[in-house]
Structures are given as structure tokens and as C-alpha cells.
Amino acid sequence: MQNLKFFTKEQFETYIAVIETIIETDSYALSPEKTALRMDNFLSTVDSPTVKQLPILLYYVRHLLPLNIWKFKKFHNLSKEDRKKALKNFIKKKHFFRDIARAMKILTCVPYYSSVEGRKSVGFVEFEERNSFANHNTNPINHDEPQV
């Protein structure tokens, strides 16, 4: 494991388990570890009260989510099927619990699908690489200064 900038080792393990659960594929375009490292690097640059609460969120996922399906293991030690079941049960609930599941989905999808590998895995073609790009005038348009 590389040097982590934001996550602790335990948080990183939990986050990788969340990624493996939410991104359903047999062949990752970007490994769960690399996806987690992308988010770790990003979060280390953000100065926000919300970001400072993410360790609490990961604590809940690690220790409390499994209890939702009557499993007394840490989240990353559950089978993939049990992890998925625990997340789905949280999504069905209201308020705080559903918010945890939604936050984890966002924290998973953003670093994965914002990577070049993730975008290509779903068939996204960069604008410049599209056949129709050659027909577009990409010169900047100059506008007069606004009259005040």
C-alpha cells in the first residue's frame, strides 16, 4: 500500500470494500485500490468541514453497516453478497442511513468514472476523439466588452 494522505489504513480497507461492492464488474478498468488512492489524493487537498467528517462516515460503514443484516464482522470482512445486502438495506431506510449509502455511492463513482479508464469502460469517447469533432469550429468567439 502506498503512503496514504487522508485515509487511515482501516478507512482505506473499508473504502476499497465499498468500491468493490458498488462498482459491479468482473473486470475493473481502474482497480479498487487505485480508485481509493485517487480519492485519498483528492480529499487530502480539500479543506472542508464535510470532508473532515468522512472518517466518521467510514467508521459507520465499517462497524455499523454489517449489524443492519445481523452480521458481527467488519464491513470489509463480509462477503460481497452480504456487503451488497447491507448497503441495499441502508438505502431502503430513511434519513441518516440512506444518506450514508448515497454518500458512499458518490464517493465511489466520482473517482472511478472520472478517470480516463473508467470513462472508456462505459463507452465514453472524449469530445476531441469523436467523428463529429472535425466538423466543429473550435475557434474562440470574441465578444465586445459589455457597456456599463
What's the layout of helices and strands?
Blueprint: H1 9-22, H2 32-43, H3 49-52, H4 54-63, H5 80-92, H6 96-113, H7 116-121
Low-confidence stretches: none
Structural class: mainly alpha
Termini separation comes to 57 Å
- Average per-residue pLDDT, rounded, comes to 80
Annotation field: number of helices: 7
Report the β-strand fraction as a percent range.
under 5%
Helix content: 40-55%
Sheet bearing the most strands, described?
Answer: none
Shape: elongated
The number of domains: 1
Q: What is the H-and-E element order?
A: HHHHHHH
What is the strand tally?
0
Rounded to an integer in angstroms, the radius of gyration calculated over CA atoms is 20 Å
Describe this structure in words.
- By secondary structure, the chain is mainly α.
- The chain has one domain (9-131).
- Helices cover 52% and strands 0% of the residues.
- It is built from seven helices and no strands.
- It has helices at residues 9-22, 32-43, 49-52, 54-63, 80-92, 96-113, 116-121.
- α1 (9-22) crosses α6 and α2 packs across α6 (96-113).
- 22% of the residues are buried.
- The mean pLDDT is 80.
Can I get a quick summary?
The chain has helices at about 10-20, 30-45, 50, 55-65, 80-90, 95-115, 115-120. With about 150 residues, the chain is mostly helical.
